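Interim report, section 4.2 (structural modelling).
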Amino acid sequence: MGMQFGIFTVGDVTTDPTTGRTPTEHERIKATVAIAKKAEEIGLDVFATGEHHNPPFIASNPTATLAYIGAQTEKIILSTSTTLITTTDPVLIAEDYAKIQHLLDGRVDLMMGRGNTGPVYPWFGKDIRQGINLAIENYALLRQLWTETNVDWKGRFRTPLQGYTSTPRPLDGVAPFVWHGSIRSPEIAEQAAYYGDGFFHNHIFWPAAHTEQMVRLYRERFAHYGHGTAEQAIVGLGGQFFMRKNSQDAINEFRPYFDNAPVYGHGPALEDFMEATPLTVGSPQQVIERTLSFREYVGDYQRQLFLVDHAGLPLKTVLEQLDLYGEILPTLRAEFEKLRAPGVPDAPTHASLVAKAGGATDTAIYGAGDDATGTSDRDTVLQGEL
Amino acid sequence: MTKKIVVVSAGLSVPSSTRLLADMLATASAAAVEARGIDVEVQHVELRGLAHALTDHLLTGFPTAELKAAIDAVRHADGVIAVTPVFSASYSGLFKTFFDVLEPGVLDGKPVLAAATAGTARHSLVLEHALRPLFAYLHAVVVPTGVFAATDDFAAAGSGADGDLHKRVERAAAEFATLLGPSAAAGPATAQRRLVEDEFEHPTDFAELLRRASDGPPAY
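Predicted structure of the assembly:
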């Protein structure tokens, strides 16, 4: 398959600065679905949605969103960007995403993130100062729930478990592939490396040198933990573009969105930000060239996701951007493929993970008798007692 | 051994009395360190030229290359001379912004010579009620003598080699030099927090991260 290309959304509801119009939540939710379906239509490999629990976002309940999109698509991998491993109960994550795996025949993976909005933590009974610790303990439990049945577990951040089996079991006995996303926490790169999971750097909004440093650490530690060479580590990057056939048209049209955007708006000039970060506003050819340059500082990588639908850009414009993305996609694929060093692995998919595991296994527990009496509910029912 | 002193000054006019005081402190400090037989290197960070970059940093979360160089200079300094004009009874917003964007821990255990300028001597306690608490919070080791200079202090009567301002500068520089070493070579005066840079150079092993994560009373 080679490199995976896709888009990721944060689900912001932002006023279009050129018209003053703010989409309703309903419009934004439906637009997200339309964008995801368009992503499949133009041949992208991945659609990922963020998770937020506060205005002005509509990105709560990513599982319903992904399942709904999954029912209307056939090939595209659905992912998260990110799943809040800090404030979401890992028991629910284990259940929810194994369920989606079954519903979508394995077309799902996850990206773990911590979330940087302080008040969200206490709303879910957590403390942002424990963010790293939450991410580490919760993820360790999540993995255990996907790989083991009858789990006995005791930790610091949730009530203990006794004999708990997460259901359904992961499809074919293989958990969804997990990426760990972090902008500036080396501990998360370490975590991804330790497990041999993927590491995704948001990349946008930050200078290349910073992304390079994080990815280098992840690669070195991936090799340190014996998962392969540093070049074989699984790396994903974000990116951000706005394209028009004529580059000056792109700049003129995007500037008001840039100037008023959440995150970086009212700050540096568009031109300065383009120079400092991977943001590319210009012609399709410029986007191709800039994107190809990412590998010069992170090495050959497996997944490239672009943010295309933020800052109040209307749906019509976003869909036009995706049409242009679809036009440059064959070139991006071909050029990256040409540049890629031998031995660099593809991004894991459900099929590749099943193959790596030596085939599908069924780890489900079908109403076995309980350990103490050897009887099960079914016996009781058969005896007419229930 | 070379001691590196970084002088952060937040004067806005060119030339400014703040920069003038900063230069006096830098010269006196360099001389005091050299008098101990130690080489010294002085680097100036003028915040005026970084004003836009500092605001952008607040908004974007990352520094421009020029601002990063200034931040790195402070990070690697053996000691910092910090000089601000007094605005509305405190340090200026520009001065504070620079210290706001430093990663927590950058000033841990670092000797800081605090100084301020103002139009009138009525602001002289700004060192005690504004600068000293700021640097105490940042875990710096603040030189006991701070230097405040009102416009009058630069007048002929108070300036010159035996003027009051000059004497205060000399005393502060001598104290600063004492804090800078050579005893400082044995280690910083206070415990130093681990910075992100340290984590990149010497990553904490995952087993330790895992142990730490669950180390503590139940939090559910």
